[in-house]
Amino acid sequence: MNIYEKIQAVRVDLENEQIKMTGHNEFARYDYFELDDFIKPLNALMHKYKMTAYPSFTPELATLTAVNCEQPEEKVTVTSPMGAANLKGCHEVQNIGATETYQRRYLYQALFDITEKDSLNATQGKSDKEPARRANASNNADFAPKKGTRQLQIENIIKGTEFTLAKVDVWIEKKYGKVMTLDELSEQQFADLFNALLAAVKKGKSDGNG
After folding, report:
1. Inter-residue contact 56 to 32 (CB < 8 Å)
2. Alpha carbon of 146 to those of 129, 151, 182: distances in Å?
């Protein structure tokens, strides 16, 4: 079997594994595959068909290369623009690790056609109604909130996407049962929001919707 036949054989066998999604994004309300959900059966199948795949990263590009172990000159490569994670309370190396884990998951999904439902369907068509606190403040320049570090972080994530600060406010209100500003969230609450939103945006971009 050549490398293309082996990749297709792994795809077919992996479909029969009936792997389950354990990841859940509370912001956009969708389930997704964690890397751990499919990497073990995937490694077993690559071993079965005598092939392997290895990732590599540069500041600009994430790459996954599949190799036919019986004919190592046969290779297939998939790439993705390199993103960046800025997780609250994590040092630089932890952020690099988080980014590479995200990239590995998407690269394996692309190479072996591991599909998920469209994550952005969960947010499309929903109301962008602003919670009362933000609406009232925006009507009075004297009380309009200044942009703090947290708001700038969120704006930086959602820039150029269909997500808005209004949707962020709705998410906060639904999750915690009351209207809260970003600055009123605890460190853990903001980290939960940040990670959920980052994953939702990244997933949307990987699907070609962002």
Report:
1. no
2. 21, 9, 12
- In 97-148, where do the E strands start and end? none
Token pair listed for 25: 């994004």
Encoded tokens for 180: 């809260």
Q: What is the CA radius of gyration of the chain?
A: 20
Is the pTM here over 0.90, yes or no?
A: no
d(CA 207, CA 138): 34
69-81: pLDDT as tens digits: 999 999 999 999 8
Is residue 140 helix, strand or coil? coil
N-to-C CA span, the chain: 37
Tell me how many degrees the CA angle 67-68-71 measures, rounded to the nearest 5.
Answer: 120
